Amino acid sequence: MAEITTLALNGLAWGLIVALIALGLSVIFGLLDVINVAHGDFFMVGTVLAWVAVDATGSFAVALVLVPILGLLLGALTERIAIRPVLSTIVLTVVSTHGLGILMQEGVRATFGATPRRLVAPVGGTITLPGDVQYDVYRLVAAGAAALALLAFFAFQQRTRFGTWMRAVRHDRETATTLGIPVARVQLLTFSIGAGLALLGGVIAAPITTVDFRAGIEILPTCFMAVVVGGLGNLPGTAAAAVLLAVTEGVVSAFLDPSAARIVSLCLMCAVLFLRPHGLFAGARA
Amino acid sequence: MTNRRSFLQTALAGGAASVFITRDLYAQASGPIVIGHQIELTGGFSSWGYWHDKAAKAAAKLINDGGGIAGRRLDLVTEDSESNPATGARKLRSLVQRNRAAFIQGSVHSGVMLASIPIATELKTVYFSTGEATEATGSRGSRWAFRTGSDTYSLAGAAAPWAFANLGKTWTMIFPDYAWGHSHHQEHKAVIERLGGKVHDPIAVPLDARDLLPYLTRIPQDTEVLFSVFFGAQSVAFYTQAKSMGLERTMKMYSVSGTIEAIAPEDMDGAAEGVTVVENFPRSLAAKDDEFHREHLRLMEVDGVHAREANSRRVYAKSHAWQAWENMFLLKAAVEASGWRTKRDDPALVAALEGMEMPNSLAHPQGAKTLRKQDHSGMVDTYISRVTGNELKPVQKVAKETLATALPPRFDFSTQAL
């Protein structure tokens, strides 16, 4: 029972962080129909910039504020250079973002180096869970920060004029254009927000994982699973699916080998694709 | 039916082919000697690959500055395996068939290395493994495959008895779910159980896992020694997350050099403090303080404490990349001893390599060693170090003679036909 508690709690904490990163992927797909296979690399850049910011200033708070802003700028630049010219053909966006991902990885390897680094958590210490398991306090802080960021994004999307525009463009791009909504600007900012969420996820996750030029490769499949299970473009569904998958994997890990737990997650995704091809939360979107 | 025209066509084709064949056999008898270097310049092992590249190039320069190999220039041709076995195998063929490499200094990535040995054997080309999976000079080895450095068999044989006596009797092993990790587990388990210790069920972690907590919670609480085998980013993740769970307070952390290769303990901000590590070329100059070691470090542009590069933050992947340096000199010695001129002389070169002695020198700064005849394995000094005050400090040295006695050869490749 103690092990289940620990693994479920960890699944929840990790799931919230993944949800934040996956949300960026879902935002970009849902609003722009762009399959951003470089999304994991945006996350990786977030971890690297966080390390650089902390190394330069000694302050994690600076990284937490500065890096997402840099993410917005990087996203805007990417949208103009790599996305907008190929936006009309979805397949080309895959090719374009794949190339972008390679550029980002090799760019980081060439400048930051291939050696993995550790970013020390700004909050130290452990709490004792049932079964005398020591659990890292920072994981709980990170989960809380991710949850806050998710809530802030949904509030922005629901309560602001720009959020309304984003939803309008997703719903019907042509009608939005006729209503005077600046669709090109919305697309630009949407991609920026998606990238910014990935970089923010990188800052939050960096003290838990590692800072290294390949960090994005591992996180991308998990994010895609959340997007698929949650329903393509369904933003609350993506966040919920990320948490659900991580908690499921955590609980199953208490009974099976963690690798087998990953297989269970993949089977769950297959079942969702068979039974609800538009995602587990497709109804919620409608 | 053969007529005059077809006869002439066949004769011309045969003549042309014989010109090419003759060129292949003899054209290189006096030109440069090409050594192919299959390394990981990109991908997961690229932080190590940089050093293998630098070491091989520095050694090649030293050899050429000293007159080359038997008076012939050494041409080093490098191919990037991308840390991918399929790509590595393809690049190996390219090195031999396109670049006409006579010998191959091979990969440190066990997957690439094990995928390459059958190809090197098929192409009848001497291949130096640099990775640690014991199969390379064991069940999947051949007479064409050699390894100057340590493997999982020798690392377990050299250091596990010391760890058993000094760290604890009840072990748990956690490692990445691929050839290198499983090989370490099998060899260490055999030694610990032979000594009367208890080894819990292994914990194999998928290569892409970064959240290791689900795996760390499976470590039994009566574990006295946690033997971890990771590399690169997963290694940093392991130390960080194990530290955050306070595992080092209840068990001794023990590992092999690969886990901390190319990473300075000070860059992990104390996460690796107290870890005992098995090295075969100690990071600390103090552990083997002689003129050859010092000169090697000077030429590699690294310091004698952290092995950090003078003009960057990179840390020398010292316990593996020394082989890329030493194997250049070993090949030079073997070519000159056997009178090798072309690939037709390979049998004599292989025979010269089998049992070759290497003296402690600038050519072999890791120390004196023997390339054992039967299993083509290097018998080298092994060092046990511990991370103390963010530095790897020597604790114990296991001499190569002890290793050779404790680890009898399990395979004999010297009887295979070439």
From TrEMBL, chain A:
<comment type="similarity">
    <text>Belongs to the binding-protein-dependent transport system permease family. LivHM subfamily.</text>
</comment>
<keyword id="KW-1003">Cell membrane</keyword>
<feature type="transmembrane region" description="Helical">
    <location>
        <begin position="42"/>
        <end position="75"/>
    </location>
</feature>
<dbReference type="InterPro" id="IPR052157">
    <property type="entry name" value="BCAA_transport_permease"/>
</dbReference>
<keyword id="KW-0472">Membrane</keyword>
<feature type="transmembrane region" description="Helical">
    <location>
        <begin position="188"/>
        <end position="211"/>
    </location>
</feature>
<feature type="transmembrane region" description="Helical">
    <location>
        <begin position="12"/>
        <end position="35"/>
    </location>
</feature>
<dbReference type="InterPro" id="IPR001851">
    <property type="entry name" value="ABC_transp_permease"/>
</dbReference>
<keyword id="KW-1133">Transmembrane helix</keyword>
<keyword id="KW-0812">Transmembrane</keyword>
<feature type="transmembrane region" description="Helical">
    <location>
        <begin position="259"/>
        <end position="275"/>
    </location>
</feature>
<keyword id="KW-0029">Amino-acid transport</keyword>
<dbReference type="Pfam" id="PF02653">
    <property type="entry name" value="BPD_transp_2"/>
</dbReference>
<feature type="transmembrane region" description="Helical">
    <location>
        <begin position="81"/>
        <end position="103"/>
    </location>
</feature>
<keyword id="KW-0813">Transport</keyword>
<feature type="transmembrane region" description="Helical">
    <location>
        <begin position="137"/>
        <end position="156"/>
    </location>
</feature>
<protein>
    <submittedName>
        <fullName>Branched-chain amino acid ABC transporter permease</fullName>
    </submittedName>
</protein>
<feature type="transmembrane region" description="Helical">
    <location>
        <begin position="223"/>
        <end position="247"/>
    </location>
</feature>
UniProtKB/TrEMBL annotation, chain B:
<dbReference type="InterPro" id="IPR028082">
    <property type="entry name" value="Peripla_BP_I"/>
</dbReference>
<dbReference type="Pfam" id="PF13458">
    <property type="entry name" value="Peripla_BP_6"/>
</dbReference>
<keyword id="KW-0029">Amino-acid transport</keyword>
<keyword id="KW-0732">Signal</keyword>
<feature type="domain" description="Leucine-binding protein">
    <location>
        <begin position="32"/>
        <end position="388"/>
    </location>
</feature>
<protein>
    <submittedName>
        <fullName>ABC transporter substrate-binding protein</fullName>
    </submittedName>
</protein>
<keyword id="KW-0813">Transport</keyword>
<comment type="similarity">
    <text>Belongs to the leucine-binding protein family.</text>
</comment>
<dbReference type="InterPro" id="IPR006311">
    <property type="entry name" value="TAT_signal"/>
</dbReference>
<dbReference type="InterPro" id="IPR051010">
    <property type="entry name" value="BCAA_transport"/>
</dbReference>
<dbReference type="InterPro" id="IPR028081">
    <property type="entry name" value="Leu-bd"/>
</dbReference>
